[in-house]
Amino acid sequence: MLKSKKWICVFCGSADGASPAYLETARCLGRLIAGQGHGLVYGGATVGAMGAVADAALGTGGEVVGVIPDVIMDREIGHTGLTELHVVRTMHERKALLAERADAFVALPGGYGTLDEFIEILTWAQLRIHAKPCVFVNVGGYYDGLLAFFDRAVAEGFIKAENRGLILVAKDAAEAVGIIERAWNLREEAPAHDARLDELVK
């Protein structure tokens, strides 16, 4: 049983995406995060999958914290209906605050920004700066090519095999939340346990 409120950071696109499955997965994730009593931390925008995940969490009675750079806020896409909205100066400050507030990270389908944010979080995990679960939601095989690239990087000696295990993969929102909750419970029940996170998806 989780002892205190946990926060899940969701990285996702500011676009809707070509398939309706992308927005529906974002909405489902927002509902699940709030419905399970967790908080949502995200990039603070109203548009695309970002707006969908936030609105779904809010609509389910959840707490949502947004972090957005002022240059984006000035374009009038900042979400003003959140529990908290932090307006920062730079993208670097945004990433740092998102990482600080979160207990886990999820990447939904997205573009350059999503990958930039999530890959940096994975790099910090590789450097043992944090030990928070990091989950790709591979909607319709969206991340198949990227996951194959990571496997190639292992084969070519650029990523250690044990660090490849930091990358968790879920097929949908429900599986992603389940993986995260099992990781949290594992750490609370046995903080010294050193099991690889990829065991959680077996």
From TrEMBL:
The record's EC number reads 3.2.2.n1
GO terms under cellular component: cytosol
Task: Return the similarity comment.
Answer: Belongs to the LOG family.
Q: Does the keyword Lipid metabolism apply?
A: no
**GO MF annotation terms:** AMP nucleosidase activity
Catalysed transformations (reactions)? AMP + H2O = D-ribose 5-phosphate + adenine
Coiled-coil annotation reads none
Q: Which Gene3D superfamilies match?
A: 3.40.50.450
Q: Per the record's keyword annotation, is Hydrolase included, yes or no?
A: yes
What InterPro entries does the annotation carry? LOG, LOG_fam
Annotated GO biological processes are:
cytokinin biosynthetic process
Q: Which NCBIfam families match?
A: Rossman fold protein, TIGR00730 family
The entry's protein name is Cytokinin riboside 5'-monophosphate phosphoribohydrolase
Q: Which organism is it from?
A: Paracidobacterium acidisoli
User: Pfam families, from UniProt?
Assistant: Lysine_decarbox (PF03641)
Q: Which UniProt keywords apply?
A: Cytokinin biosynthesis, Hydrolase
